[in-house]
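Fold it.
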Amino acid sequence: MQKQKDYWPALCVLGMIDAGLGNKQAALEEGRRAMELVPVEKDSVNGQAMVVYFALIAAWVGEEDLALQHLGAAAPTPGASLIASHGILKLSPF
C-alpha cells in the first residue's frame, strides 16, 4: 500500500483487515476508496465486487443498514449473479 496507494485490491483487503480488527473509520474509508477507484460504471465485475466487499466491511463494523443498502445497489447490476447471488452470499465464509 505504501508504494501503490491506488491499488484497489490491496485497499479492499486492508479495509477487511481493519474491519476485523475493529478499526471502523479506517475500514470504511478504505472500502469507500476502493469503490471509488473501480466504479461499477467502468468495470461492472470488479466494481460490483468492491461494492459487495464494502458491504461486508460495513457489516463487520456494525453498520448493517449501510451494508444492506450497498448489497441492494449491487444486486441489479450486470454480473450480479457472479458475486452477489443469494447462494454465494449465504455460503460465503465471510
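Helices lie at 8-21, 24-37, 44-60, 64-74, 80-83, 86-91.
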